[in-house]
Amino acid sequence: MERTLILIKPDAMARGLAGTVLSRFEAKGLKIAGVKMIQLDEALLKAHYSHLADKPFFPTICEFMSRTPVIALCLEGLEAVEVCRSLCGVTNSRKAAPGTIRGDLGMSMQANLVHASDSVETAKAEVARFFKDEELFGYEQPVINFLYASDERG
């Protein structure tokens, strides 16, 4: 099973959509391996968005992402990174397909409700950045027999 990071962003928090967003991932069948609310500080923002540090919009992202606490989720499932990215929709919410989180609930490029890891490698680094090992949980879900075929469970 693959793990990925999701951040429920300040716009979703301010709009009271955290539960709605989380429920979309749960309804799909992804397992919550870790969850916590956190206020992103300057150091964490610089580390998380280091790939954008030279962009002119970097200060705007940092200001936006520190407006409210966020909810960090570590989700688990087969091909979890790709599944979560598909559920989120494209970055620009105005162009996201109906049925996706951003397509159904968002109107902005930046205030687009969620961050989702963009690759398996990135997911590993991001999960480690936001969660200590002891904050992640492995447990059996009885419903797993109804989420995946027996040959998919491994």
In short:
The protein is α+β, with helices and mostly antiparallel strands.
Question: What's the layout of helices and strands?
Answer:
Blueprint: E1 2-8, H1 10-14, H2 18-28, E2 31-38, H3 42-48, H4 58-65, E3 70-77, H5 80-88, H6 101-105, E4 114-116, H7 120-130, H8 144-147, H9 150-153
Antiparallel strand pairs: 1-3, 1-4, 2-3
Features:
4 strands, globular, alpha+beta, 9 helices, Alpha-Beta Plaits, four-stranded antiparallel sheet, 154 residues
Strand proportion: 15-25%
Tally of domains = 1
End-to-end CA span:
9 Å
- From N to C, what is the helix and strand string? EHHEHHEHHEHHH
Protein name: Nucleoside diphosphate kinase
GO cellular component, one term: cytoplasm
Active site: 115 (pros-phosphohistidine intermediate)
Catalytic activity: a ribonucleoside 5'-diphosphate + ATP = a ribonucleoside 5'-triphosphate + ADP; a 2'-deoxyribonucleoside 5'-diphosphate + ATP = a 2'-deoxyribonucleoside 5'-triphosphate + ADP
Describe the 3D structure.
The chain is an alpha+beta fold. It has one domain: Alpha-Beta Plaits. It has a four-stranded antiparallel beta sheet with strand order 2-3-1-4. The longest helix is centred in the N-terminal third of the chain and has 11 residues.
